[in-house]
Structures are given as C-alpha cells and as structure tokens.
Amino acid sequence: ITYIKDDAALAAFLNSNAVDGAAVDPGTGAPPISGVGLEQLMARFEAAERHIKRVNHRLDGTLLRAMMDLPPMDEERWASAEARQQWGEALHRRIDNNSLDLP
User: E strand or H helix at 34, and its extent?
Assistant: First the structure.
C-alpha cells in the first residue's frame, strides 16, 4: 500500500507509473527521452504548472504558458536587439495561437 499525502505526491506517483516503458521523441534528431529523464521532465512541467496556478491572479497564465514553449533567453541573446525582437514576435504568435483555445 502506498500512502499519498497530497496532490503533489499523487502527481509524482502517477508520473512515475506513467513513464514505465514510455518514451518521448523530441523530433530534433535527439534520442528519445525515457525513464528517469522523462520522469524528471514531467515533474518540472508539473512544478511549472503549480507555480502558474499560484501566480495566475497576478500574471496571465496564457502568457506564462506561451513563454514555457519558447527557448529560454540567456544574457547573450538579451543583449541582441534582433534576438529580443524575434523572441517577442514568437511569443506574440504563440499567445495568438493559444487564445484560440480559450472559451
């Protein structure tokens, strides 16, 4: 018998069972993600979703989820006006695509 104390523990338990024998192909020529790597990726996604739900009253969840879909901006890329412009445009497109899913 496994005791599950809260929603986070339930998510971890379900994720652990879900990845058993599963793999995700990132489609970039990289090897499939499976096992512990997939479990860690799912845990990070769940943590991000919990944070978004916690701050949703201050920051738009659609914006935060769209930002999760984009590559991160490091210090070097932020120094480039062109890179900032491209990232902002990609964010705008992503938000527009997400807004189609809203009720």
Answer: strand 33-34
